[in-house]
Amino acid sequence: MYKPNLLRSVLFVVLSSTFLTGCVRFPFSMQEGGSSKPPTVPSGRIDHRKFEDVEIGSTPLNWNTEEIDRFSGEINRLFERRDFAGLDRLAGDLRSTKARFEYGGGWKIHTFYMIVSAPSTATEWDAHIAILGEWKTATGSITAKTALAKAIMNTAWEMRGTGYADEVDPAVWPAFNERVKQATNVLNEAAIMSERCHGYYETVLEFFREVGTDGERAEKAYQEAVAFDKDYQYFYIEKAYNLMPRWGGAPGELASFAESLITDLGEPDGLITYFLIAADVHALEHDQFFAETGLSWRKTKKGFLLFEAKYRPTSLRVNQLAAMAWSAKDPQAACNAHKRLTGPKDFNSTVWKSREDFETRHRFVLDAMCKMPRSENQAL
After folding, report:
1. Per residue in 185-194, pLDDT tens?
2. DSSP state of 164
3. Structural contact between residues 246 and 284, judged by C-beta atoms closer than 8 angstroms
């Protein structure tokens, strides 16, 4: 039987001088699939033959937002009415059923926490956190405590910004560190509970990464999370983030971890998770992504195909595929992906640095890459 005991000793010793030094460095842009540099055309020549065994289709996206709209509407109504018992019941149902969205296969409990831990506008943070505090007082549930801790950390990063630590205004650090202490206290309250939740572990893993906790504690949290539910893809994505060089990962460590999941999870889930890791980690890197991380573009494409066969495609994932095809110097995959992104709603702002960035690449792909002969090597 699963016993949640590791994190009880882990969280209580997390708060340290690490927070006060502000030593964790973050990239200029945290947007998924974006680049911290202006768009540039990758250099090099491509052997198309090595891509021929993994074809990416060009079927247009069939947009349907009704499912997520209904889901978010239900959560927002419960929150606005302060129906805290209702929110706890909904989260409990999502946990026990492991509910996923039909489009994209995302876990609904993951999206639940994204919705409840942030207000609809940036000016409402204080009021939103106050309501989360009421929820925590009213029910004392793991859900309420997780949502509150996640929201407090969100506000900390709102005031800090996503630049490197040495670029942050020194006057911001005291308030940032105070928010970190508040989030630590709430997570400590959750850590001593017998109840557990996917969102709790995901928040702890994210928290440890953001505050620069040492690798041993982060690894203990990861192992306990996977023991709780090995099917929850977001645990592996958080682990992958921790293995990036910017957060202390050794060269090749990220690629080895992603490779191990193919064996550990089997097919198709291992390759699907491989794709999801590449897609999300690519958000923080640049146009030399595959060369520098050692991740396999061929396996990433296979994972995408398996992902799309299992779940209906979404704008996010096809946009991510298009951005990665650019990094992989694969004109055929880039062409096919961009052919699917021609509708008015197909641009995804979380993937590209800006709409201008997307449009520049989009036009180049359709006007140039799509016309490159497959039989010859081409310079991008």
Report:
1. 999 999 999 9
2. -
3. yes
CA distance to 59, 103, 308, 317, 370, per residue, from 62 (Å): 9, 10, 13, 13, 22
- Token pair for residue 339? 């052919």
Contacts of 77 (CB under 8 A, 6+ apart): none
Stretch 207-221: mean pLDDT: 84
Rounded Cα distance, 188 and 191, in Å = 5
Query: DSSP states of 19-53 as a string?
Result: HHHT-----S--STT--SS---PPPSB--GGGGTT
How high does pLDDT run on average in the chain?
81
> Is the pLDDT confidence value at 34 over 80?
no
pLDDT level of residue 217 (50, 70, 90 thresholds): confident
- CA 250-251-254 angle, to 5 degrees, is 80
Grouping H, G, I as helix, E, B as strand and the rest as coil, residue 379 is strand
Q: What angle do CA 157, 244, 21 make, to 5 degrees?
A: 45
Asked whether the predicted pLDDT for residue 21 surpasses 50, the reply is: no
Domain borders along the chain are 1-30+65-102+108-231, 46-64+240-380
Kindly tell me the burial class for residue 73, based on how many C-beta atoms sit within 10 Å of its own C-beta (0-12, 13-18, 19 or more): exposed
Query: Would you state the torsion angle of the CA atoms of residues 124, 129, 134, 136, taken in this order, to the nearest 10 degrees?
Result: 150
What confidence category does residue 55 fall into, taking pLDDT thresholds of 50, 70 and 90?
low
Distance CA 35, CA 358 (A): 11
| Residue 268 preceded by cis peptide, ω within 30 | yes
Nearest to 301 by CA among 65, 107, 51, 8: 51
Does the domain spanning 1-30+65-102+108-231 belong to CATH 1.25.40? yes
Q: Scanning the structure block, which residue is given the tokens 């097919």?
A: 267
Distance of alpha carbon 26 from alpha carbon 274, whole angstroms: 23
HEC letters along 54-117: CCCCCCCCCCCCHHHHHHHHHHHHHHHCCCHHHHHHHHHHHHHHCCECCECCCEHHHHHHHHHC
pTM for the structure as a whole? 0.82
Structure tokens belonging to residue 63: 């947009």
